[in-house]
Amino acid sequence: MYKLWKSTVKELLLLSRDFGGLLVLFIMPLALIITITLIQDSSFKQLNNAKIPILLVDLDQGSVAQQIMQNFDAANSYELLTELHNQPLSETTARDAVLAGDYQMAIVIPPQLSSDLERKVSQNVNQILSEFGLEEESVVMETFQAKEIKLYFDPALQLAFKNGVMSGINQMIAKIESKYIYEAFQEELATDEDQANPLLAEENFVRFVEIDPLEGKREAIPNSTQHNVPAWTLFAIFFIVIPLSINMVKEKNQGTFVRLRTNPVSYLTVLGGKTLTYLCVSFIQFLLMLAVGVYLLPMFGLPALAIGPNFLTLCLVAIFAGLAAVGFGLLLGTLASTPEQSAPFGATAVVILAAIGGVWVPVFMMPKFMQTLSNISPMNWGLEAFYDVFLRQAGLLEVLPEIALLFLFFIVTLTLSVVFDKKRSLV
Amino acid sequence: MENPIIHIDNVFKKYPDAEQFAVQDLSLKISKGEIYGLLGPNGAGKTTLISMLCGLLKPNNGTIRLNGHTYRENASTIKQMIGVVPQEYALYPMLTAVENLQYFGAMYGLKGGNLKNKIREELAFLGLEKFAHKKIKTFSGGMKRRVNLIAGILHAPTILFLDEPTVGVDVQSKNVIIEHLKNLNQRGTTIIYTSHHLIEAEDFCTHLSILDHGKIITSGSPSTLINQMPEASNLEEVFISLTGTALRDHV
Fold first, then answer.
1. What are the Cα distances from residue B249, in Å, to A58, A263, B72, B214, B245?
2. What was the ipTM of the complex prediction?
3. pLDDT winner (highest mean) among A162-171, A317-326, A347-356
4. pLDDT tens digits for A70-94?
5. Which of A49, A229, A420, B85 has the fewest CB atoms within 10 Å distance of its CB?
6. Of B166, B191, B251, whose CA–CA distance to B34 is shortest?
7. What is the pLDDT of residue B250?
8. Residue B132 near chain A (CB below 8 Å)
9. Which chain A positions have a beta carbon within 8 Å of B79's beta carbon?
10. Stated pTM of the model
11. What are the residue ranges of helices labelled H in A220-266?
12. Nearest CA distance, B203 vs chain A (angstrom)
């Protein structure tokens, strides 16, 4: 115990003398969390001053184009441009501007879209009515070519954004078509009085209403802060792998590890000192992140982090996530023999673990294979536990399985470190 | 030799990727209280032998007994009994001399006032008391070498292994180190020492072996070895005549 205590004191002293290292350990995660939350919050909130410019080439000049423009305006996230350098847009100039990356997308509305759509809908309605014997004259069938609204996307545009916009436009077109159909029926069937007081409601009959499963019990409303602070806190906690493994590689290069191997102290005790020290660091990181979420983020106009009633459970999750991260760092430090091996590998491994763990993309959106893989990522266990406490109001019992897995990961990595060291020392 | 403190019996060592044995069929007995020099050109097997004696390497074959114990049977007893002064400055540059020594002393179970007094005494003896609270990274090579030595002797080891303890230091530092080691030996510590300084070894060692190609090619007291070769007037000439003048670059 005395040797473990002295090893811990030595590690704390070494860490306290490395000002640059401390800065990286504490300031960088804070910078990360502020930056990511600001970026994600602005994209969630769709701030007025961050409207996305979209080029619109209107070859129709009819009511459909007018309605598309009104819908984009109503969305309040886009700025439609019909001119470029004071010149009306053509399809070619719009396409070139998008390909050059100057604009994210362009919409080309084909000529006669409004008139053809109107005629097509009217013809279909008349045909239906004549089949029911409501139309006296027989309908003369005219053939219409399908109309294409062309969308040009910047190749560098993220797929999620592209899919979102395409889905929005599809909905918009479907709504416009429905409206035309309603209007055509109304025109054929309604009396003059009805025409003056439209029968057909403009609003959708079926609407979505979100019901909060925790209504009445919820302390924290899900928002960018509630999502980002736990995710990036975990990411920062795992980044401890890098300084820890570098610390161990340094000791090997300094010769102090060799001296320690001739001393009557076990490798486990040496690792124990590092574990306690870096666990303290990760816990301080966690508290700092919480403080940033609660006090600093609101200063940037972001929602404040609501910690909820289970602060102690949160602390436990943070401690066990820290243990898992330290275990991984110890294993990497044991295996690596140069900082050039440990630093890039550590950084890449943490990023991969974060990606698999669902820090960037939710696990349910991943391919099946990756979803299975995410079950073995300690970052996924930690993140799920954090979300359970932060967003689902879970208590200690509910997060016990994740905590147990994180602890098991620590035990496995620590055991592997001791086994590898023993194997190496018996050369 | 009755009850040698170090008993090496038919030891072989070959590194995994090497074609030749670093140490082959080496047997040696060292008595308690000796200052025993292991000399030899680069690649002769000195560091490999001393690493096996310190428990850093495991022989492929043969046995090593330190004070009757083997590493396999009782590694912790041996580790408590030995002191090691490696060739590199095995110290934490960002810690002060005292902090380094407190840590390494604690690893031998030394604590409290006893440890503090021991550190103070050793630093004073080696002329470092003024720099006790300065970081190691600010020390000169000679100062680091002296702290490196103290870290290996704080617990008054029964056997002390020194791998080139005076390499790269000025004459003043070297004299202080050698003087201190002689004192330690007089207090009962058996010293095993490797060096390329043959004049220093001739003066310092009570007994020595010259190794080449992983084998002992001669052993005896410095004066015996010199007297065995009528044409040699000192240990360096004995060494050259036994190991030749060819360069021994070794990878």
1. 81, 32, 34, 15, 12
2. 0.85
3. A317-326
4. 888 877 777 888 888 888 888 889 8
5. A49
6. B191
7. 56
8. no
9. 262-264
10. 0.74
11. 224-238, 241-254, 256-262
12. 28
Name the phi and psi angles at A304, rounded to 5.
Answer: -75, 150
Token digits for A50? 């961050």
Residue of A9, A258, A263 lying closest to B107 (CB–CB):
A263
Name the minimum distance, in Å, from the CA of A12 to any CA of chain B.
Answer: 11
Structure tokens at B148: 């490196």
Q: Would you list the DSSP string of chain B?
A: --S-SEEEEEEEE--TT-SS-SEEEEEEEE-TT-EEEEE-STTSSHHHHHHHHHTSS--SEEEEEETTB-HHHHHHHHHHHEEEE-SS--S-TTSBHHHHHHHHHHHTT--HHHHHHHHHHHHHHTT-GGGTTSBGGGS-HHHHHHHHHHHHHTT--SEEEEESTTTT--HHHHHHHHHHHHHHHHTT-EEEEE-S-HHHHHHH-SEEEEEETTEEEEEE-HHHHHHH-TT-SSHHHHHHHHH-SS-----
Place of tokens 């002689």: B182
* Spatial contact of A105 and A55, defined as CB atoms under 8 Å apart: yes
> What one-letter code names the amino acid at A257?
F
Cβ pair A14:B108 closer than 8 A:
no
pLDDT at A48 over 50: no
Q: In angstroms, what is the C-alpha Rg of chain B?
A: 18
* CB–CB contact B56 A258 (8 Å): yes
B90–A265 CB contact, under 8 Å:
no
Q: Which amino acid is at A349?
A: A
Helix/strand/coil for A108:
strand
β-strand pairing of B35-39 with B190-194: parallel
Which residue in this structure is represented by tokens 């799920």?
Answer: A384
Which range among A9-23, A27-41, A130-144, B132-146 shows the weakest confidence by mean pLDDT?
A: A130-144
CB B153 within 8 A of CB B160: yes
Phi, psi (deg, nearest 5) at residue B157: -70, 155
Listing DSSP states for B59-120 in one string gives -SEEEEEETTB-HHHHHHHHHHHEEEE-SS--S-TTSBHHHHHHHHHHHTT--HHHHHHHHH
CA distance linking residue A24 with residue A20, whole number of Å: 6
Q: Which residues of chain B have pLDDT under 70?
A: 1-3, 242, 244-251
Q: Contact, B126 vs A285, CB < 8 A?
A: no
Q: Chain A within 8 Å of B158 (Cβ-Cβ)?
A: no
Q: Which domains does chain B have, with CATH numbers?
A: 6-218 (3.40.50.300)
- Please say whether the beta carbons of A272 and A325 come within 8 A: no
